[in-house]
Amino acid sequence: MRIYIDSANIKDIEKVMNILPVDGVTTNPSLLAREKTNPMEQLKAIRGMLCKGQELHAQVISSLAEDMIIEAQHMREVLGEDIFIKVPVTPEGIKAMKKLSALGVNITATAIYTPMQAVIAAKAGAKWTAPYVNRLDMIGADGVQVAISIHNMLTRMPASSELLAASFKNVEQILKLAEAGAGAVTVAPDLLEQLLYHPLTDKAVWDFTADFESITAKGSTMREL
Ligand code: G3P
Question: Which domains does the chain have, with CATH numbers?
């Protein structure tokens, strides 16, 4: 399962990247707004932090298909042709996806709340389809189940589109998607830290160190032997 950092904050992205094996960064206009900087400059800075093979996803703001296409082309000129352009699954968005995918633009269909929206986006050429898991949970739906339905349908479709589930609030939601074989998840930095954390892991390491030091010296390691 690919794992992306859902953030536009340089420090947070850096902190996660220093530890976890991640496949890129996803942003959205709200995440960029939190940074209170020029959004394109912020995206350029994030772009500069990525290694080969790591993806950057950034969203168009325009609401009409023709404008989305021009905006996407401008974003590719500034940020590189391998950027993933996030396009919402509105009727105008789907119209833009069809044209952009024909031009070879990488598309992430976003703001997905139903499996049917994901199917249409896949047919329109989106490489990734992004349902909002926790936002679905918050309106009484089952976000994980919606994401799993999307994954199952996409794997049976001839279009080469995959699930990139977004909007998580706990590790359980992510684990269930990993168990179901989800293609990718994008997760906020604070929750990404929780993916690895277990207090008993810390205790085990502390106990091993204390036992080792009991027969050597405080602060010693194998290097001193
Ligand atoms: O890009 C969409 C995703 O970031 C939404 O997450 O936590 O705002 O529901 P959240």
Answer: 2-196 (3.20.20.70)
**137 CB near ligand 1 (under 6 Å):** no
CA torsion angle for 164, 139, 68, 109 (degrees, to 10)? 20
Per-residue pLDDT of the chain in tens (225 residues, 90 and over written 9) = 999 999 999 999 999 999 999 999 999 999 999 999 999 999 999 999 999 999 999 999 999 999 999 999 999 999 999 999 999 999 999 999 999 999 999 999 999 999 999 999 999 999 999 999 999 999 999 999 999 999 999 999 887 899 999 999 999 999 999 999 999 999 999 999 999 999 999 999 999 999 999 999 999 999 999
> Residues 76-103, buried b or exposed e (16+ Cβ, 10 A)?
beebeeebbbbbbbeebbbbbbebbbee
How many Å apart are CA 209 and CA 219, to the nearest integer? 9
Whether residue 37 has its Cβ less than 6 Å from ligand 1: no
Tell me the three state secondary structure of residue 159.
Answer: coil
Q: For residues 132 and 109, what is the distance between their CA atoms, to the nearest angstrom?
A: 11
> 7 CB less than 6 Å from ligand 1?
no
